[in-house]
Amino acid sequence: MSFGKKSKKTASAPAVPEQAEQSAQSAQPEVPAPVVVERVPLIAGNWKMNLDHLQAIALVQKLSWSLKDVKHDYGTVEVAVFPPFTDLRSVQTLLAADRLALRLGAQDVSPNAPGAFTGDVAASFLSKLGADYVIVGHSERRQGHGEDDATVAAKARAAAAAGIAPLICVGETAEDRAASGAAAVPLAQLDVALSSLEAGAEFVVAYEPVWAIGSGEPASPEQAQEVIGELRARVRQSHGDDAAARTRLLYGGSVTSQNVAAFLRQPDIDGALVGGASLDADEFSRIVQFKKHVIAG
């Protein structure tokens, strides 16, 4: 993380009358230099409820080999996989044993500490498995499991407390978009999640318009940038300039190797949350290599 340098004040001789105005102007308080941060793009593969632990091992091995063949630099584009709970230990063991640079994430987490919560998985358990990220607020959890904004916020808080970065999903349905515009619902969802996170907490935000997920019809890059730009402004308002500068905001919703570069050209889009395409090692590898297809405009 680098910051702009401020100029230093030096002592000077008393000003003559005609220099007084210039001296008064130079005595004005300095304007803080803007925070300058180079955000490393993140390509995250959400496997959803697909692949058993043996299939998971095979996919990670093939993906790793594919990226090794093209000499992928994980320092310039971070890559994370989000297997089902039953696959996490197998994938974590493979990553550690083969010293693979892929990052590990989970698809959900309990808002509760360990205890009498049948079927839940505590954030502390995921931390012990070496999980770097956990998805919270995905539309499939919001719609299919009735999770509201308060539940999502509690999950984000639990993850952060365990040292795991919550990947907070927000997005509007087609009906939301028609009624109140593209940004209103995602901003409201993000507000509640941000209210649960302390200053300095690490988190990622993924904008996934619900109407685009799995439809084969993604938002346009310009539509995505418009909403994500507003989401970054809300992070700045809530957590300050530094958080807004360093927080990565992703686009998700029918991402493929054919369209990812257009999204990543946008100034506020720092990566992609990839669904179905992440189950194909070759296709996901091509998505990770998006920089080869980005042409400066």
Automatic annotation (TrEMBL):
Pfam families: TIM (PF00121). Residues 13-30 have a biased composition (Low complexity). Its EC number is 5.3.1.1. CDD domains: TIM. Substrate binds at residues 46-48, 214, 254, 275-276. The active site is at 138 (electrophile), 208 (proton acceptor). Pathway: Carbohydrate biosynthesis; gluconeogenesis; Carbohydrate degradation; glycolysis; D-glyceraldehyde 3-phosphate from glycerone phosphate: step 1/1. InterPro entries: Aldolase_TIM (IPR013785), TIM_sf (IPR035990), TrioseP_Isoase_bac/euk (IPR022896), Triosephosphate_isomerase (IPR000652), Triosephosphate_isomerase_AS (IPR020861). Homodimer. Involved in the gluconeogenesis. Catalyzes stereospecifically the conversion of dihydroxyacetone phosphate (DHAP) to D-glyceraldehyde-3-phosphate (G3P). This is Triosephosphate isomerase. It comes from Leucobacter weissii.
